[in-house]
Design brief:
Number of strands of chain A: 0
Helix content of chain B: 25-40%
CATH topology of chain A: ABC transporter involved in vitamin B12 uptake, BtuC
Order of helices and strands of chain B: EEEHEEHEHHHHEHEHEEHHEE
Number of strands of chain B: 12
Radius of gyration of chain A: 19 Å
Structural class of chain B: alpha/beta
CATH architecture of the largest domain in chain B: 3-Layer(aba) Sandwich
Order of helices and strands of chain A: HHHHHHHHHHHHH
CATH class of the largest domain in chain B: Alpha Beta
Largest sheet of chain B: 6 strands, mixed
Largest sheet of chain A: none
Distance between the termini of chain B: 35 Å
CATH superfamily of chain A: ABC transporter involved in vitamin B12 uptake, BtuC
Strand content of chain A: under 5%
Strand content of chain B: 25-35%
Structural class of chain A: mainly alpha
Oligomer: heterodimer
Number of helices of chain B: 10
CATH topology of the largest domain in chain B: Rossmann fold
Number of domains of chain B: 2
Number of helices of chain A: 13
Helix content of chain A: over 70%
Chain lengths: ~325, ~250
């Protein structure tokens, strides 16, 4: 059954990729192919990073509702951005070379993300609703702090923040893409190598300890990977929840829920690739259908946001009743 | 041998265990009993490394808790989790298969699969092997968890109040299984029990705890008496002997 479903997913993925590369082509192929290929690579990298980090996060927190983005990991990006502009000014910000900025983003997001998630896991141990609540409140706190900082800076400097704090897939900087890949690909490989350990950790702390898999160590390692993956995706494409062309904050939630539904298994060797493929199909295929087939100007994020909101509510209510 | 030396433990600055020392040689079932809050589950969780050891030393054979590798310890010491502590949607065969994890680290070989099938047969779980954990009864679930711990092939097995939420038939059949594991496979079982009658009927040795200290230790017929129930549990239940085993009348 699983094999057949993976075949279907693979076919859909191939269709999405081919559709994205070829449909609605205007102009010469020699320009179009590399131009679209780099965008495609960015889309794929962001999809896989977000899907894998969501699955990891849901496993180590033993919940199916909360994801790094729902918790406000994206808000962290805007916060860091605002803090940089606030302390160096727009001119100072513009003077920071792009690679350095990327590295700064990555390091700060990973570091702050680690603190945030550790707090969350500590605070909400075993209590999903408390954890969801803590996560959302922390997200609001970060957004409020960001808003506070933004009100204190010059309006023209505020414009700088606005223009860079939207998810963007219209233009992909090759250097940024390469840097994101250098961070994300090893993290993905490590996540894949953790797959059996994650299966054991998902059994719960008592069973995992008994089987020789100290859950805290696994949690810490997974958290580092989650932060690296989410940070490199966000540093590449901008935050997901702020509209624009990127996927929404519910993106990870949807693909993880779909993966559990379409390929039900406790095995991360099934869940991780399935979520990653579904993410690519949703983002690449969705983008293709919306832009090139239906010729809609509605950003894909809006559709994902609506569907994601509904998924979130359903998961939350189902949990409540069970 | 599980050797516990001068172990003290506090949770949130409240002392739970006071300088506890205990030796559990190989073989047989040792039951930890005592009133609520006596520290028996805490002691077990320290041996199981579910809580971090702060004062004192615990070793299992040659392995020192807190210093040895988790992986090595998992080949010597199995913990039977409560079914409520396991969340994943698994079939019984998957669950029992996890018992082999310390030996194969996620890459089961033919001998691991053989052991799983043998375990399923031994525990009478073959007809249920493809069923999911949330589709079977509480007693069957506990049996599956016992099977998982058995498949781990460790000389030692720890259980924390496994009879919670089980009816009398399921409780007796689980204790019977443990008895078989101790007698036929020579496993050393350390179990926290609430019900003194189950402890007296199935254990070889009772260790009685009160307020973080061991207050009595020995064979059930030596330990269980009306005086002990009064001194330790603060209740005046009569005790009578049946088939050379003490029975508390409730």
């Amino acid at each position: 059954m699983l094999r057949k479903r993976f075949l279907i997913l693979g076919t859909l993925l191939a269709l999405s990729v081919v559709g994205y590369m070829t449909l609605g082509a205007v102009g010469s192929w020699s320009f179009l192919i590399p131009f679209r290929a780099s965008k495609l690579a960015a889309l794929a990298l962001v999809s896989v990073c977000l899907a894998v980090s969501t699955v990891l996060f849901q496993t180590i927190t033993a919940n199916r509702i909360l994801t790094p983005s729902v918790m406000g990991f994206d808000a962290l990006y805007v916060f860091i951005l605002t803090a940089i502009v606030h302390s160096f000014g727009a001119a100072g910000y513009a003077a920071i070379p792009a690679p350095l900025l990327f590295v700064m983003n990555l390091v700060l997001m990973t570091g702050m993300g680690l603190v945030l998630f550790s707090l969350l896991i500590k605070g909400g141990r075993g209590d999903i609703l408390k954890m969801v609540l803590t996560g959302i409140v922390l997200g609001i706190l970060i957004r409020a702090l960001t808003g506070f900082l933004q009100r204190m800076i010059d309006p023209s400097e505020f414009q700088t923040i606005q223009s860079v704090s939207f998810a963007r897939f219209t233009y992909v900087d090759k250097l940024n893409l390469a840097m994101a890949a250098i961070v994300a690909l090893p993290a993905l490989v490590m996540a894949w190598r953790m797959r059996h350990r994650l299966d054991v950790i998902a059994l719960g702390p008592v069973a995992a300890t008994g089987l020789g898999e100290a859950p805290r160590r696994g949690q810490r390692q997974a958290l580092v990977l989650i932060c690296l993956l989410t940070a490199s995706a966000t540093a590449l494409a901008g935050p997901m929840s702020s509209g624009g062309a990127g996927p929404s904050s519910f993106f990870g939630l949807i693909v993880a829920a779909l993966a559990h539904m379409i390929t039900p298994s406790y095995k991360h060797s099934v869940l991780l690739p399935s979520a990653a493929m579904l993410a690519c199909i949703t983002l690449i295929g969705g983008q293709t259908v919306m832009e090139r087939v239906l010729h809609l100007s509605t950003p894909l994020a809006v559709v994902i946001e609506v569907l994601g909101g509904i998924t979130f509510l359903i998961l939350l209510l189902k949990r409540r009743m069970a | 041998m599980i050797s516990i030396r001068n172990v003290s433990h506090s949770i949130d600055h409240t002392p739970i265990l006071h300088d506890v020392s205990l030796d559990i040689p190989r073989g047989g079932i040792t039951a930890l009993i005592g009133p609520n809050g006596a520290g028996k589950s805490t002691l077990l969780s320290l041996v199981a490394r579910l809580a971090a050891l702060t004062t004192g030393e615990i070793s299992v054979d040659t392995l020192k808790i807190g210093q040895c590798k988790d992986r090595d310890l998992a080949k010597v010491l199995a913990i039977m989790p409560q079914s409520t502590q396991v969340s994943s949607r698994l079939t019984i065969r998957d669950l029992v298969g996890f018992g082999r994890y310390p030996w194969h680290q996620g890459h089961p070989g033919p001998e691991d699969r053989e052991k799983v099938e043998e375990t399923l047969t031994r525990f009478g779980l073959e007809p249920l092997a493809h069923r999911f954990l949330d589709e079977i009864s509480g007693g069957q679930k506990q049996r599956a968890f016992a099977a998982m711990a058995y498949a781990q092939s460790t000389p030692y097995l720890l259980l924390d109040e496994p009879l919670n939420n089980l009816d009398i038939a399921a409780s007796r059949s689980l204790m019977r299984l443990l008895r078989d594991m101790a007698e036929e496979d020579g496993k050393t079982i350390l179990i926290v029990l609430h019900d003194i009658n189950y402890a007296a009927a199935f254990a070889d040795r009772l260790v009685v705890m009160k307020e973080g200290r061991i207050v009595a230790d020995g064979k059930p017929e030596k330990v269980v008496s009306a005086k002990l129930l009064y001194d330790v549990f603060g209740t005046d239940a009569p005790v009578c002997m049946m088939d050379e085993r003490p029975v508390v009348l409730v």
